[in-house]
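Exam revision sheet. Question 4 asks you to relate a sequence to its structure. Input first:
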Amino acid sequence: MPELRVLLVDDHAMMRAGFRTILTLEDDIDVVGEASTGLEALAVARRTRPDVICMDVQMPDMDGLEATRRLLTDPDVDAAVLIVTTFDSDDYVFAALAAGASGFLLKNAGPEELVAAVRVVGAGDALLAPEVTRRVIERFAGRDGEAAASLPPRVPPLTLGDPLTDRESEVLRLVAEALSNAEIAARLFIGEATVKTHVSNVLQKLGARDRVQAVVLAHRHGLA
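Answer key, structure tokens:
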């Protein structure tokens, strides 16, 4: 199986060791590097070319949020960032998404959740811990003035080149309910591959990078 190349960024060596132990048990995941600060992560990422970066938030020299912003604008780095933190804070979640992170996971998640999150983000999808999904949707949907003002600049304006089909609209509504592709397939009695095609079409038509951006746009423009 193709290996996902993973970089671990955390200022606690024991945490990195634990993540490495969990991830290297999987045949399709290879931990290619570690860093203890955001600044160090920039150099290691350029050298190791990871597919996924598991990024802590609070670190010396440069925090994970600033490191994420720099990494995702670095032409020498082509990786998705999964924020993994102990802090279940709205500010961290929103700042991470604004920085361009594709996922947000709490450190109290189980080993199987970490593995699944790395695979999801590595496949180009977005993932949020269940604890924060609804809060993100409500705030980024602009349901209060402060929330609307905090919409991350990486969320593009809605530019529908082609209108969504009825089926694509239905799939988008289920994505907005935080359902996985498998759950959507079961709900609509269609194949999972068909769901992936619909999701891909929706992202393209909305001009969204991932499912999180699609949900934000859908809520702001009454599509879900």
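Marking note for examiners. The first strand starts at residue 4 and ends at 9.
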